[in-house]
Amino acid sequence: MHYKTFKTDRLLLRPTSEEDANLIYQLLNTPKWLQYIGDRNIRSLEDAKAYIQNKMTPQLKRLGYGNYTVIRKEDQAKMGTCGIYDREGVKGVDIGFAFLPEFEKKGFAYEAAFKLMNVFFSEFGIHRIQAYTSKKNQASQKLLEKLGLKQTGTTFLPDDKEELLVYRISNTKE
User: Looking at the 3D structure of the chain, how many domains does it have?
Assistant: First the structure.
């Protein structure tokens, strides 16, 4: 099966695969990931490959979209991930993003997320996108607001003890 990749002026977004295990290993062990998203117990490249196979690939196969590796065109640097997620036990889809520290605060997350949101509204028939973020993660909150999402309340995701802020955007009149 061939899955879509997307391009922006500076970025290539392609579905995350096992060849991205090193990026996933690094990303899931960054201080911000551990603080705001949580420890996924990725302690080796093998763990990262298994995480991709078990947590990312099934949704891609089921829906044709999921987690994308964000690559800088100019030098092919793998900088982070951005994706649209259909979580078990949660109604609707949500957008998420995470970047290695050296690629933060350069507009890459906005560029990647803006592209995916537009594609999902126009090509995948999705009419509403949500996002969840820690109350402490002000950088994520600012980015979601810049993308046009509005905070609508709080929630707990399945199997998570932290109350999260909920943001939403819709391309229909609700």
Answer: 1
